[in-house]
Amino acid sequence: xxxxxxxxxxxxxxxxxxxxxxxxxxxxxxxxxxxxxxxxxxxxxxxxxxxxxxxxxxxxxxxxxxxxxxxxxxxxxxxxxxxxxxxxxxxxxxxxxxxxxxxxxxxxxxxxxxxxxxxxxxxxxxxxxxxxxxxxxxxxxxxxxxxxxxxxxxxxxxxxxxxxxxxxxxxxxxxxxxx
Amino acid sequence: xxxxxxxxxxxxxxxxxxxxxxxxxxxxxxxxxxxxxxxxxxxxxxxxxxxxxxxxxxxxxxxxxxxxxxxxxxxxxxxxxxxxxxxxxxxxxxxxxxxxxxxxxxxxxxxxxxxxxxxxxxxxxxxxxxxxxxxxxxxxxxxxxxxxxxxxxxxxxxxxxxxxxxxxxxxxxxxxxxxxxxxxxxxxxxxxxxxxxxxxxxxxxxxxxxxxxxxxxxxxxxxxxxxxxxxxxxxxxxxxxxxxxxxxxxxxxxxxxxxxxxxxxxxxxxxxxxxxxxxxxxxxxxxxxxxxxxxxxxxxxxxxxxxxxxxxxxxxxxxxxxxxxxxxxxxxxxxxxxxxxxxxxxxxxxxxxxxxxxxxxxxxxxxxxxxxxxxxxxxxxxxxxxxxxxxxxxxxxxxxxxxxxxxxxxxxxxxxxxxxxxxxxxxxxxxxxxxxxxxxxxxxxxxxxxxxxxxxxxxxxxxxxxxxxxxxxxxxxxxxxxxxxxxxxxxxxxxxxxxxxxxxxxxxxxxxxxxxxxxxxxxxxxxxxxxxxxxxxxxxxxxxxxxxxxxxxxxxxxx
Lengths: 179, 559
Hints:
The complex is a heterodimer.
Chain A: H1 3-12, H2 24-38, H3 46-59, H4 73-83, H5 87-96, H6 99-108, H7 117-133, H8 140-153, H9 156-161, E1 172-176
Helix pairs in contact in A: 3-4, 4-8, 5-8, 6-7, 7-8
Chain B: E1 11-16, H1 20-31, E2 36-39, H2 47-50, H3 68-74, H4 132-135, H5 137-141, H6 151-165, E3 167-168, E4 182-183, H7 190-203, E5 210-211, H8 245-255, E6 259-262, E7 265-273, E8 278-286, E9 292-302, H9 306-316, E10 333-342, E11 348-351, E12 358-360, E13 377-384, H10 399-404, E14 411-419, E15 428-436, E16 442-447, H11 452-471, E17 475-478, E18 519-521, H12 536-555
Parallel strand pairs in B: 1-2, 1-9, 2-6, 3-4, 9-18
Antiparallel strand pairs in B: 5-12, 7-8, 8-9, 10-14, 10-17, 12-13, 13-14, 15-16
Helix pairs in contact in B: 1-8, 1-12, 6-12
C-alpha cells in the first residue's frame, strides 16, 4: 500500500487521532495489515480476493519453490475476471465461489479462509473431483484451477521454478531430461 | 550509373507496398540505379521499439491470451491468423477501419498487414521452390491458362533470392521440390528422426520427411546474426535472424541512397494517361491527415498483396481489359492431417524453441495418378511434448499436483496438410457498391469457396497423415477439424494472373500489365496456379526477375 492510500484509509476510518502514538515500525505493520485485509480487486471484493488467493495457494503451494501467492495468481485471476472474461463467465465464477465458504462452514463452522488447512484441502479436493466429472457446462472450479495453473506457469517465479526462464538461446532436439 | 534515365517525374519508379515483394522491388530497382519511392499504407517500424519477441509472459496484461474484448471489437477477422497474439496483433490491420464483405454463407479470411514490412514481419518463413510439376500443371490438366514460364526461367532468381535472404534446409535431391542455396539445416528432434526413418523403411523415396526449409539463419549471413531459438518470430527479431523486408531488403535499398520510403500512404488509385497509355503516377491519401497528393514515376510496381493490388487496379479502372482482375482467387486448403502419440523418449526433451517444423513434400500425382483428384499437398508438422499445459485440466491439488507441472507429458507428432487449390473464375473479388474504408476508398466484396478437387485433397490428407503415423508406431491418432476457411492460410493469390494471351490474363511473362506497359504487378496476384508450396519465395523470385526486366526495358527506351 502506498503511504497516500494508508493515510486515506486512516482518514476514512477516523484513525488519525491515534496515529501520532504509533512508532514508525508499528505504522509500517499497520499499513501491511490494512493492505492484506483491505485489498479489493476489480472483479473480486476483499473477501473473494482473499478466498481466491488462498485457494490458489492450496492448489499450488509454496514448497522448496515459490507457490501461487508468491506468483501473484490472485491478482491475475482478478484481472482476467475483470477484463478478459465475458460477464456471463464472470458471473458464473462469482456465483460458484461462495461454495468454498458454504462447504467450510458446513464442515467446520468457519469461512474458507478461516478454516484449518486440512479442511480447505478436503473441500478443494472434493470440488476438483466434481469439476472433472461435470458433463455439461464448465464447472466454476475448473476455471479457478485453469487460471491458477496458467497464472502460475506464466509468472516470473513460476517460470523460473519450472526451468522455463531464462530461455536457453540454443536448440537441442534430443536433450536428456535432467529435472 | 543510370545516366540514361532522364526524367521529369518525381521518381524513376514507384513501388506500392513495403512487404515481402515491395521490399524486393525496392532493393533491386535502387541497386539497378533507379530513384525509387516506396509507398506504405501503414506506420513505420523501428525494430528497437517495435520488436517485442523477448517480452516474457508476465509483462503482458493477459499473459499471452490477448485482449479478448478489444480483439473481438476491432480484429475479429485478423485474430484467426495462426500468428496473431497478444503482442503481434499490432502487426495486423483494424477490421473496423478496413472492412470488406463476403456472402453470408461463404466466409473468407483476409489477413492484412499495414506497416513497413507488411506481412513479411509475421509470415511463417517456410520457403519451397516450385518445379515444372507445378509450372506445367495447368497445361497438363487443361485448367485455367498455362504458366508462361518454366522452372528454368525462375531457377536463377530462386538462387538470387535465397542467397540474399538466407534459407536453412536439407538437400534431398527431389526433382519436384528442387534443392536451393541452403544454410545448414536445423535439427530434427528425437521423435521426428524416428518418424523419418520409419517412413523411409515403409515408403522409400516416395514419401520423405525433411526439416522445414525456412528463412531463419543458422549461421551469420549478410551481416545478420544466426537464430537464437527464442521462439516467437512473429513478434519481430532484434537480431534480424529471419528474413523480412525490414530486416534485409529495405536496409539494402536504403544503402543505395536512392530509396524514399513514405509510410502512412494509402493508395487511392493509379493515375492513367490514356493519350500515352501510361501510368503517370500514384494518388495517395495520408493515413493520418487524410490529405491527398500525387507522386509521378516512370514505372509502377504493385506489391500491395494479391487482393489489395487487385483492389487498386479495380478502383483505378486500369489493366482489366481481360476481366480477369480480382478473379481466380486461390489459397491453400489446410486443417487436414493427423496427430498421434508416441510412447518412449520420456527421458528426452527439446531445449529451446525451434522456429521451424518438418516437411513432407508432395507425393500425390507425382509419379502416379490419383483417381480422386488432381494436384496434391505437402505436410508440415512437428513432434513435441506439451509441458505444463497438460496440467491445466489435470486432477489433483497441493504439492503433488505442483510437482506434476514439471512433467513434460508424452511426445506427440502432428502432420498438417497444405493443399493446392485450383483456380476458378468464379472465386472473385469485386468492388463493393457502397462499402468504403475509413479513408473513403471503396472496399472489396470477396466471394470464394473451395472446389470439389480442393475438398477431395483435404479428405486425402486425413488418410495419408494417419498412414504416416501408423507406419511410425503412433497411437491415439486424431484428426483436426477442417477444412480451413478460404484465405485462412494467408496464401491468397491469383487475382491478376500471368498468361500468354491478353484476352485471358492480366500480366505477361514478366509481370508486366498487358494493357499498360509501365505497370508491373509482382505480388501473389500474378500467380496462375497455386502449387501446394508456401508461395512467398516464388513471389520474391518473380519480383526480382521483373525488376531486372523493367530496367532493361528502360535502358532500351522501350518504356
